[in-house]
Specification:
The chain is α/β, with parallel strands linked by helices and about 130 residues long. The protein is built from 6 helices and 5 strands, in the order E-H-E-H-E-H-H-E-H-E-H.
Length: about 130
């Protein structure tokens, strides 16, 4: 993996958390383009209309959200065409430190990492290593 990914998206219902996470990722030059969504439904709608043009390499996903939570997002995401999903990796970024949430999330094919908020420099470094392997 290069030092910076082309495109990532952040999905979190908290605008404050989105602002902090986005700023943190910008400071560490983690992505060339970063989109944010305050709802899983909006993110799913956007993903379903991209037609492969703006497919993110990575999605940071909160679990605890109203309407559609992170697990609902993962279920609906898993129903998108495999050719669309194959190059997208998902990182859970949540306030949950529940072992059952960790196990349940990692059971989804595209989920590659689980981070408990707040996002830290050590999380970014560990994630970069994980994505490079």
């Amino acid at each position: 993996m290069s030092n910076s990914m082309d495109q990532i998206i952040l999905i979190d219902d908290s605008e404050i958390d989105l602002f902090i996470q986005k700023r943190f990722l910008e400071v560490f030059n983690f992505s060339k383009q970063l989109k944010t969504f305050v709802s899983a439904r909006t993110a799913l709608d956007w993903l379903s209309t991209t037609n492969g043009a703006e497919v993110p390499q990575l999605i940071f996903l909160d679990l605890n959200m109203p309407d559609i939570d992170g697990f609902g997002f993962l279920l609906q995401f898993s129903q998108l065409p495999a050719t669309f999903r194959e190059n997208i990796r998902i990182v859970i970024l949540t306030s949950s430190n529940s072992r059952s949430d960790l196990d349940k999330a990692l059971a989804f094919e595209n989920v590659v990492h689980f981070i408990t908020k707040p996002l830290k420099q050590s999380d970014i470094e560990a994630l970069k290593l994980k994505l490079a392997s």
